[in-house]
User: Which sequence fits this backbone?
């Protein structure tokens, strides 16, 4: 791992009691979900990570605790570093604080995760679906959401087939 | 999934996004798109207008959603690559590169130098093609019809080169984990050299039509300003970020695929308006031609694919004489290879900015999770900031200037 990256990782470890994993030269820092705004503010203001490259989620269904991992990729232009922050989330009513106030680009990314994984972002200014239609049921990127090979539903038997379909139910 | 009801999205749900004046009826809400030539794809914008002045823009995306991230989870690593071409259909080679680089990082696979150099040449040719389409369509939005036709004429030459090497003009799938599909044919070098010889003159031609054209300048100078802070806040990368004065190019700062061997400049402009975003791409085109030329001059001889048979299928000739090769071939194309458990993030500089692939493996032959950090997504998100206070006609110029590809956004 690059020396500068190790320094940032150790600073995070000290301040937030985070543990980190090194994998293929990348640093993955595991934090608790309630720490995310603190970590993001620390990275932006103290460690010069100006760019939040992306946020994504991973679903470990059928595991329940933790079912999801949120993955944040921060980039520092000044120090030329990339760091990955992972926050585990429970499968039961998953929610986390938004980082929209710190990084404006998180707005759409978090909407995408809400749309695709059903993870709620608290205090998000505009948490609507972004890619799927507004009246869509379920969250497609969850592992228990089927990928094709479904029985087609028509208006006359929509409810009948809907009842036995392996859908992600809330 | 209880009952099927089609809910119309009413204005009530958008209340918090428009100003109070819209609710009183003082300003007008106007729908632009999804079928509108100047939105460069199926992009819908809800505009709030005061006369002809834009008060707010609410982008509505998802019309081109194809579920590629979900689909890739159901295919083996090699087979999923075919779908990467379809994401950003102006940057097929670049998407292939980002994806195979993520796999190579995940399984720690080495790529021979000839394959690296070929990748650089083809990705940079793709950058030229992408910038040409952008230049043509962005100029077309401002009623410069001839630029559009000229740009597409030159792009055709690049697509011919792609057809030469991969058999396909657009959906190339030419890069494979460990190298490239096959070596390039003998005609390749001449075709690229001819193109390199022709292109600088053609670039001068485009510039003579636009850079000092008062009709064009009237529409672009001082329009849609973006400061460096705003750009970083909104995650804008690539040419748009460099046009706002931030010197950040992954090819230079975090070199991959051997970019450190080539001598090139990263142009940076500070104005951050539509003109700067236009001019920086012209400058980049010239630098890109230089990189292609250097890579072609230095192109080493040797194998074009790794010979690690656990991940790379053997060539056809080997299958006829080696039992192991036959077994590897069969195993790799029926089951695929098992990637070790773990997650990687591999960013590359696409023509639009930072194109990153987050790839996670659970130890099996299929990706457990693939996420595409696509540059157009963030570049579009900043549109309301750029458009506020400008006229509707300027909005068209601004959308053209940020270079979005809807296939890249909706995935």
Assistant:
């Amino acid at each position: 791992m690059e020396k500068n990256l190790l320094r940032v990782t150790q600073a995070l470890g000290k301040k937030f009691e985070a543990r980190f994993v090194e994998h293929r030269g990348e640093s993955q820092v595991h934090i608790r979900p309630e720490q995310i705004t603190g970590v993001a503010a620390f990275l932006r203001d103290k460690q010069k990570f100006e760019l939040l490259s992306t946020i994504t989620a991973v679903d470990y269904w059928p595991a329940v605790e933790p079912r999801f991992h949120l993955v944040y990729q921060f980039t520092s232009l000044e120090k030329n570093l990339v760091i990955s922050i992972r926050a585990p989330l429970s499968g039961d009513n998953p929610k986390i604080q938004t980082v929209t106030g710190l990084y404006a680009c998180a707005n759409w990314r978090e909407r995408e995760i809400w749309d695709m994984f059903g993870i709620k972002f608290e205090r998000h200014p505009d948490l609507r679906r972004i890619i799927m239609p507004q009246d869509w049921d379920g969250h497609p990127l969850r592992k228990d959401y089927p990928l094709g090979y479904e029985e087609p539903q028509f208006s006359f038997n929509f409810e009948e087939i809907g009842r036995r379909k392996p859908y992600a139910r809330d | 999934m209880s009952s099927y009801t089609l809910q119309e999205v009413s204005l009530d749900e958008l209340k918090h996004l428009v100003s109070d004046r819209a609710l009183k009826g003082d300003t007008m809400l106007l729908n632009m798109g999804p079928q509108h030539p100047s939105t460069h794809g199926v992009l819908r914008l809800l505009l709030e207008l005061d006369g002809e002045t834009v008060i707010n823009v609410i982008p509505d995306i998802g019309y081109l959603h194809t579920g590629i991230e979900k689909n890739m989870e159901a295919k083996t690593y090699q087979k999923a690559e075919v779908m990467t071409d379809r994401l950003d259909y102006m940057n097929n080679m670049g998407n292939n590169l980002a994806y195979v680089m993520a796999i190579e990082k995940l399984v720690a696979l080495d790529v021979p130098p000839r394959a690296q150099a070929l990748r650089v040449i083809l990705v940079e040719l793709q950058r030229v093609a992408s910038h040409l389409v952008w230049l043509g369509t962005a100029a077309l939005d401002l009623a410069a019809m001839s630029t559009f036709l000229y740009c597409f004429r030159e792009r055709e030459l690049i697509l011919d080169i792609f057809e030469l090497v991969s058999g396909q003009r657009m959906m190339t799938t030419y890069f494979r984990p460990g190298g490239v599909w096959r070596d390039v044919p003998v005609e390749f070098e001449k075709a690229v050299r001819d193109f390199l010889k022709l292109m600088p003159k053609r670039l001068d031609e485009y510039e003579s039509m636009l850079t000092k054209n008062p009709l064009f300048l009237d529409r672009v100078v001082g329009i849609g300003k973006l400061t460096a802070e705003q750009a970083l806040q909104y995650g804008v990368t690539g040419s748009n970020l460099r046009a706002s004065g931030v010197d950040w190019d992954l090819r230079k700062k975090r070199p991959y695929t051997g970019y450190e061997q080539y001598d090139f400049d990263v142009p940076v402009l500070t104005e951050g308006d539509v003109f700067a975003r236009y001019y920086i791409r012209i400058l980049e085109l010239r630098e890109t031609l230089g990189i292609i030329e250097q890579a072609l001059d230095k192109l080493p001889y040797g194998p074009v694919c790794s010979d690690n048979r656990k991940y790379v299928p053997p060539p056809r000739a080997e299958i006829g004489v080696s039992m192991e090769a036959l077994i590897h071939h069969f195993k790799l194309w029926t089951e695929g290879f098992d990637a070790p458990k773990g997650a990687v993030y591999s960013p590359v500089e696409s023509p639009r900015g930072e194109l990153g692939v987050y790839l996670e493996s659970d130890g099996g032959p299929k990706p457990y999770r693939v996420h595409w950090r696509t540059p157009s997504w963030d570049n579009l998100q900043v549109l309301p900031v750029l458009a506020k206070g400008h006229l509707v006609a300027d909005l068209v110029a601004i959308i053209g200037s940020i270079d979005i590809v809807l296939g890249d956004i909706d995935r």
Chain A touches chain B through 49 residues (CB under 8 Å). The CA atoms of residues 8 and 95 of chain A lie 27 Å apart. The two ends of chain A are 42 Å apart (CA to CA).
